[in-house]
């Protein structure tokens, strides 16, 4: 038996440059124990008997050697991976695809029960280099002769003990008997019951063995929660969480270097102090970002696993796994960035439905139940904003010299015959107009959902309509800041009731359409929608991107205001405040 500690990097293995580039982008630096124990044997052409739990990185242990040997000029099945479930088949196929991102014209095909046979037959006729499938559906295709394994080089049995429990072991043996006699076999199983050992003895030739003991880590100081991704865009969900979580500093983990830059930019556009941390940054820039985090001039780092290795900043109170890690060891390393120096830490994990297997593996590895969390509601956001404003007011009263301002308020109240309460309300509104204390307090239709609900915009007297027979409102017929042409007015299906502010609208348009903020004109907020003026030369491509854009959990469904006027007559409330020009 072999039990190995990682003592080398991927670059020291005989792996092709495109694969090394891909795993570097994903964030892998050194092989996990099962990868270190398996990859050299598989690269050398040996059969392998591997014992490792889910979440130890075993998919890469067999995927990388297979991809390293694949002949892209032969579009026929050169490797077959058998998995017990369709979910695992899809997960394995996605992992292969991510490792093969720099292999030109590479094709992998998952086949499983429950998917249209006609679709699979068409895809098999087109050809694929690698097949990932469940035993029953693979048998169906072998009987139909729609799957030809004459050119098979490698066969992988993934989670063989699960296939045994589910009664597939006879099917697996039948498939093994229909493969070429000279083929490499890798069998992976979390446990090694006698039935699995008999299969290995019958079909594997002088196999090398790699046994990795399951590691567990106790993380009592860290409270762990997960959000099951459904319906909402992850960025909108993250924004809601940031609104209500009482965090000091935070690391958000993503899988790729590109994602660190994109997410950091989008968070910055939404008003958060965020920066990217990835392997492409020079050591000096990485150190500068960490120093800013320590000195509180930066609150959020968006990082890859490699870039955050060894990061120790005491004020990190939260870790968010925006992208679920590929293995449990990476998860433990990630959440270990918080809960330092005896402080309590918070870890939040975003889990897609097909990733729930990894969630179970993480719970096993950390010996801790991970609680499901629900996204903060608009009421939660409102309560949090009110509480933060209250704390700011009390702190100001305690720490600032306010006699001049008290005299000003008294004089203004007397001059205008107003009460101090009236003035306080007006000043509160002005202080919070970019971040209203009362965002949408609506039923679930306004929550993070694809449904817009049936609520209608209340009708108002015709004299209050902002548009008149003469065309668009006067304040929107103007030259854009920094532009040479007149702007065009558009309607967005997100408004004051959704808690949106001009800042979110500017950030979304700038990020998604690439229109600099200085070219984005007047923004008007109504209860149920907003209007924005964009440059007349805005490209169709930019508008197409905006059509798919979401703000505050709602698709904005951008369209010309002219289209609005040409349709059925719509009465709307007069906006409660003057037009806002973003800075």
From TrEMBL:
Q: Where is the composition biased (Basic and acidic residues)?
A: 448-484
* Pfam short name (any one): DeaD_dimer
Protein EC: 3.6.4.13
Matches recorded under InterPro entries: CsdA_RRM (IPR034415), DbpA/CsdA_RNA-bd_dom (IPR005580), DEAD/DEAH_box_helicase_dom (IPR011545), DEAD/DEAH_RhlB (IPR044742), DEAD_box_RNA_helicases (IPR050547), DeaD_dimer (IPR057325), DEAD_helicase_DeaD (IPR028618), Helicase_ATP-bd (IPR014001)
GO CC terms of this entry: cytosol; ribosome
- Domain DEAD-box RNA helicase Q as annotated: residue spans: 8-36
Compartments (UniProt record) = Cytoplasm
UniProt motif (Q motif) ranges: 8-36
Name all Helicase C-terminal domain ranges.
234-381
Could you state one GO biological process linked to this protein? ribosomal large subunit assembly
Residues in coiled coil: none
- UniProt entry keywords in alphabetical sequence: ATP-binding, Cytoplasm, Helicase, Hydrolase, Nucleotide-binding, RNA-binding, Stress response
User: What are the start and end residues of every segment in region (Disordered)?
Assistant: 441-486
SMART domains for the chain: DEXDc (SM00487), HELICc (SM00490)
Q: Which PROSITE patterns match?
A: DEAD_ATP_HELICASE, HELICASE_ATP_BIND_1, HELICASE_CTER, Q_MOTIF
In this chain the Helicase ATP-binding domain maps to: 39-210
Q: Which HAMAP family match?
A: DEAD_helicase_DeaD
| Name the record gives this protein | ATP-dependent RNA helicase DeaD
Per the UniProt record, the source organism is Candidatus Methylospira mobilis
Q: Which gene encodes it?
A: deaD
